[in-house]
Amino acid sequence: MAIQKVTNQVMKHGIIQVQTVAGTDTQSTTSTTFVDYPGMSITMNVREGSKILVRMDGVFLHKTAGNFTYGQFLRDGGVAFTASSKGLTVTSATMYSPITQTAWKDGETAGSHTYKWQYRVDGGTGEAYGQPVMTIMEIAQ
Asked: Is the pTM of this model over 0.85?
């Protein structure tokens, strides 16, 4: 009986589900408007009122020193997240930098939602080295 109560308590106030996807290996863009990063999309069914935490981890290179590569998270095709960082940049055209971008959404609506990550540059070429990873976590509130 005590184990059942603990399990129910965790489900009411803890992590409900986590999904992760790896993007396509080594992609680059010269687009100055946001474009989808190939493979960085997750569709999941969520509960009413959940908090959604999204995270992208990757290694990036901007081939023109001083330019920026930007990332953003979308939900069902629209920007619906507060991001912890908008600009992903390096100071040298030959230096790869590990990047983490995290965002969240409080009070999600119940149902199936598609979350994705997009990127763009403000000039030059931005490139992901290897496969960036996107993780989505649904948390009960």
From this structure: no
- 31-82, pLDDT tens digit by residue? 999 999 999 999 999 999 999 999 999 988 877 777 778 888 899 988 877 5
How far apart are alpha carbons 134 and 141 in whole angstroms?
22
Measured CA angle at 91 (ends 129, 23), to 5 deg: 20
In the Cβ-directed half-sphere of 112, how many Cα atoms lie within 13 Å? Answer: 2
Asked if 46 and 108 touch (Cβ cutoff 8 Å), the reply is yes
C-beta atoms surrounding 107 within 10 Å:
10
- The answer to whether 83 touches 73, Cβ cutoff 8 Å, is yes
Q: Which helix (H) or strand (E) holds 9?
A: helix 2-13
pLDDT digits over 78-107, tens only?
887 755 445 555 545 667 778 888 888 888
Which residue segments constitute the domains of the chain, with CATH numbers given?
A: 15-139 (2.60.120.760)
Rounded Cα distance, 118 and 83, in Å? 12
Output the six-digit token pair for 86.
């908008």
